[in-house]
Each structure stands twice: as C-alpha cells, then as structure tokens.
Amino acid sequence: MEKIVVLENNFLYVEVNPNFGGSILNFSFKKNNSKISIFRKTPKKIKNNNIKNILATSYFPLIPYSGRIKKGLLRFKKKTFKLNACPILQEENSVHGDGWKNPWEIKKIKQKSIVMQLNTKNKNWPFKYSGVQTISIVKNILKISLELKNIDNQSMPCGLGFHPFFDMTPNVTLQMKAKKNWLVNKNFLFKKKLNILPRVDFRNKKKLFNTNLINGFSEWDGFAKIIWPEKKISLEINSSKNLKHLVVFTTTKSNFFCIEPVSHSVDSFNLYNNGIKGTGTKILKPKKTFKVITTFKTNFNQSMM
Questions:
Q1: Each residue's pLDDT tens digit, 53-88
Q2: What CATH number does residue 206 fall under?
Q3: What is the DSSP letter of 134?
Q4: Of 131, 204, 228, 249, whose CB is crowded by the most CB atoms within 10 A?
Q5: What is the helix (H) or strand (E) element at residue 29, kind and residue range?
C-alpha cells in the first residue's frame, strides 16, 4: 500500500490514498477510544498494485463520467468513439471513467484537507481534460469537491460523481426524495424511466436490507439520510444542485450498499444523442470547468433505535 494521507480532527478520521485512484480507505466517526465506520472500511490486506482492489476501497471519484457506456461506444455529434471495456468487472461496457483507474498527484496538503490533480493523458477518453479533487473535514462533516476542466479545442460530453460504499446491516434505512426512477437491465444499462413506485419510494425512511436494487433516480433534491441503528450513527448527504441523479445499489449478493450522487444517468451520452430527455448530460465547452460538491455529515445518537 502506498503512503496514506490522514485527515483527522476531534470528530472524524479519514485515510486517503491519492496514488490509488484518488480513493478513500477509511472514513470513520471517533467515539471515545473507538472509530465507527461511516464508509465501508478498506481491508488492510489489499495491495494497490492490482487495480481490481480499488473495488474494495471505501470511496473513489467518478470522472469524466459515471456509470456505464454501452459496449464502450460513445456517440457524440455524429461521431462514434471506441472506449476500453472494463475487464475489472468482466463486462464489455466502459465503466465510471478514468479517475478510479489512475494515480492522482498531490497538489496541497494541510492538516484537515488535501488537494489532488488528475492528468490521464487521454488513456481512455477522446477529449483532453484535467481533474481536481479536494477532500476536507470540518467538525463532523466530510466535504468532497470534484472538478473537471475541458482543455481540448472542442466541446465534450461529461459528467461527475461520487462512489462511496457503506456497510449493509439488517436495520439500516435510507431517506431521500426523487421524481423519476431509471430502471436498468441485467447489463446495468438503461431499460426505461418511470415515475416513483411504492417499492422505491424513499420519501419516508425505508430499510435497505434485502431490497436488491440496482436503480438510478433523477430529479433528486440533493439530500439523503442513512441511519444505522446498530451503530447508533446517521449520515446526512447534501449535494450541489448540479447533482440531480442518485444511484442506489443494494444487491443481496453483497454485504455493502452504494448511494452515489452523480450528475447524469447511466449511458447518459448515448441516450442524449438519441434524444432522450433528462439524462443530465453536460456539454462542456473548451476552457470551461464543471464542478460538483457533496458533504457527508455524521451524527451519533446513543438512544438511536
């Protein structure tokens, strides 16, 4: 494992590994002499010389897009660009962009913050861009900002997002509000868009255990709350207004779940190219920057049931 950057105050403990996809390895709430995990804790035994191990981390950034691009074929302005497939997940789609597969360079470190820069040299994206990720803590809040700059001489489709992993427990609940549900098929690709049905209506908190969801939501209001009665911990997620999509992944085959604030739907750029509305696709002009922010606020309640 490469050298870990630790951010710590009286409330939070965070381990960041810039060289390993700009990932977070540990995000915990400090209580007395113990640490209560907020993001799923990364196993100590993993080694970052195998990129597949990034899927065992606590969090990684999504840049210059999130989700899948069908068969790695990006269609934009009457052109088709071939992207690499994702052998890590054993599928033919391109997945989650470049940020999680490449090292980030440390630009600035303080006691409670770190700034990293990504320069991929277009390993798997047909447009030139640069990325900056800032991770900081203030009291009981973890803040992550992600920004993408178009350094090409032409406009590009793009998107950003955050991919945290959380421990699944029998009583954990989610509360959030969205207007549309984007269903996916067995290949994690867009199937159809629906109004919110009772099974996926999280306006009032609902248990996640055994829900087996692989769903995207749109017209999300930017707020979500997760409660772990077993840990006596709750987490409030607040995202910038340009993150109107939320991915909820609760497959019963895993002991974790994902709640991912993102700017666009799965296979967004191809859907946009086909005239589908509401995908969240961002068309970024040369020299322009796209920035998103999400905060994770922790609360401990001894009497939580």
A1: 888 999 999 999 999 999 999 999 889 999 988 777
A2: 2.70.98.10
A3: E
A4: 131
A5: strand 23-31
